[in-house]
Write a structure and sequence with these properties.
Blueprint: H1 3-26, H2 33-37, H3 52-77, H4 82-87
Helix pairs in contact: 1-3
Length: 88
């Protein structure tokens, strides 16, 4: 594995982790099925006042991080394949 592919894999994990952290910190996750099954129904998120920027932080930023993470995973998989790389 060359250095370029490894960087894509590390960045993908970083962006995925950032999305998960933002989701857990700023969203009410008490209604997720896995949280209910594990009896972790305590309040562990930061409540933000309703505003446009806070809504972007809570609802759009984690999705953007996960989207970028997915693109980086595809880039990691198809890095040495130039024809597929160009298409995607």
């Amino acid at each position: 594995m060359n250095k370029g592919r490894l960087i894509y894999l590390i960045l993908s994990g970083l962006f995925f982790g950032l999305g998960v952290c933002i989701y857990i910190l700023f969203r009410d996750i008490r209604h997720l099925l896995i949280i209910e099954k594990m009896n972790l129904t305590g309040k562990a998120f930061v409540e933000l006042k309703p505003s446009l920027m806070n809504n972007v932080l809570k609802y759009n930023l984690p999705d953007m991080f996960w989207f970028v993470s997915g693109i980086l995973v595809l880039r990691f998989i198809w890095f040495p394949k130039k024809k597929e790389q160009f298409f995607f």
